[in-house]
Design brief:
Blueprint (H helix, E strand, L loop, with lengths): L2 E8 L3 H12 L4 E4 L13 E2 L1 H9 L3 H5 L4 E3 L1 E6 L4 E7 L12 E3 L2 H12 L5 E4 L2 E8 L5 E8 L4 E11 L6 H6 L3 E4 L3 E9 L8 E7 L2 E8 L2 E9 L3 H7 L1 H11 L17 E3 L3 E4 L3 E2 L2 E3 L14 H22 L4 H34 L8 H9 L5 H8 L26
Parallel strand pairs: 1-2, 1-11, 2-8, 5-14, 11-20
Antiparallel strand pairs: 3-7, 4-7, 5-6, 9-10, 10-11, 12-18, 13-16, 13-17, 14-15, 15-16, 19-20
Length: 423
């Protein structure tokens, strides 16, 4: 028998879970399909920015989020000089009064997704189906998308009819590929390799810390009990990096971050180093009749700035705000779907433009050996006029057109006894 829902969300990542929660709170019947059995994947986007933190408070989930183990970063800066003094280029503390949470919370993404899933499960119109992979789009006689076909981990297959299907299944989106939407690609000079090194009690400042030398570039992120590190190298060099072996990789990391040289031997093999194929792209059109793409499925982001998860969440909030009423009334049109793209296009273009500028002006010159640190004009400006650090902080932490929870989704806070310590 054909199953049916009003809105079928493909992918249980941040965008999919936020969209599912908000639509369910609007009384829309929504089914989220997630192909994995759980949310436990390492080195996914773990940066939760001020706008998302404020959103969680509006949804009544702020105290539950605060109870999760987390570290909080309030600055972005480069270690300079022999003593490694931090040159702050983005100071989120200056956002106080503009946002309720002037910091970035580093929380394992699976904890955030579990929190959203628990909240959504309280809504009678919400369904989450794990171990369920979308394999195809259903189409009507006119070519419009009318739902999906799926396969479970047990090998069972089925179909779900839906008034609207929303692709939130990331940069490798099956739904986006099958819809045949045109993609605008931008060149990326690098890929990223993620790994972790131990962090001692009280070690390191609570700041996002890029490290640069001619030919090498990494970003060090302090986490609970460890440093999460993104090592950047020229695109397409994963095979070469792995062929050189773990000893050579350890030596590169130690040269780039001498303060961490005493622990690089905790990297047992290159299996501890996870490769990310960095992409930067954007759909020219985010929808076809019956299907809308959001988050990375609509616009893959560079890891520079760590803003991908938050843009995806903002997309989901905008979509829920604009589409809840049409979905309740069973009258979603192509114009309704395009309103979501038009509302989110400027913030997307702004962030991608900034990332492209940083790729050309910082990442590529460093990796090609033409530059060994932050550009001199930036260093002089931030050292001479510290209030200027609010500009990068605002672009990273808030961005253009921040979204807020619609009235139908707001709730009083859920009280939590005690809270996990933060660092």
């Amino acid at each position: 028998m054909m199953e049916r829902t009003t809105c079928c969300v493909v992918g249980g990542g941040p965008a999919g879970m936020v969209l599912g929660l908000l639509l369910a709170r609007a009384g829309v019947e929504v089914t989220v399909l997630e192909k994995h059995a759980d949310f436990l994947r390492d080195f996914r986007g773990d940066t939760v920015h001020p706008t998302t933190l404020d959103l969680l408070t509006e949804l009544g989930l702020g105290e539950r989020f605060d109870a999760l183990p987390q570290s909080r970063l309030d600055r972005v800066g480069f270690p300079v000089g022999e003593d490694g003094e931090l040159l702050v280029v983005g100071d989120l503390r200056r956002l106080a009064g503009r946002v309720d949470h002037p910091y970035i919370a580093m929380v394992p993404q699976w904890d955030l997704l579990d929190l959203l899933a628990d909240a959504a499960a309280q809504e009678p119109t919400f369904t989450l189906r794990m171990d369920t992979e979308v394999t195809d789009l259903r189409r009507g006689a006119d070519g419009a998308v009318t739902g999906v076909a799926y396969r479970t981990a047990d090998g069972d297959t089925g179909e779900i009819a839906a008034d609207l299907t929303v692709a939130c299944d990331g940069r490798g989106s099956t739904a986006r590929a099958q819809a045949g939407l045109d993609v605008l690609d931008f060149p990326c000079p690098m890929d990223a390799w993620w790994f972790r090194l131990p962090r001692r009690e009280g070690e390191g400042v609570e700041a996002l810390s890029p490290r640069m030398q001619a030919g090498r570039f990494a970003v060090v992120i302090p986490r609970e009990g460890y440093f999460q590190i993104a090592y950047m190298a020229p695109k397409g060099t994963d095979a070469e990096l792995r062929a050189r072996g773990i000893e050579a990789f350890r030596a590169d990391v130690a040269a780039l971050a001498p303060d961490l040289a005493d622990r690089v031997d905790t990297l047992a093999s290159m299996d501890d180093v996870k490769h990310l194929d960095v992409r930067l792209d954007r759909l020219r059109r985010w929808h076809v009749d019956g299907l809308l793409c959001l988050g990375d499925a609509a616009h893959a982001m560079s890891p520079i700035g760590g803003v991908g998860i938050n843009l995806a969440v903002q997309d989901a909030v905008a979509a829920a705000t604009l589409l809840a009423e049409p979905l309740r009334e069973g009258r979603v049109t192509g114009s309704d779907l395009d309103r979501v793209r038009r509302r989110r296009l400027l913030p997307t273009i702004a962030v991608q433009t900034l990332q492209r500028v940083m790729h050309r002006g910082i990442v590529e010159p460093v990796l090609r050996g033409r530059m060994g640190g932050p550009p001199a004009p930036i260093r002089r400006l931030m050292a001479a006029f510290p209030p200027a650090t609010i500009i990068p902080a605002y672009l990273i932490g808030v961005g253009l057109r921040p979204e807020h929870a619609p009235a139908f989704a707001r709730r009083e806070p859920v009280r939590v006894t005690g809270a996990a310590p933060t660092r």
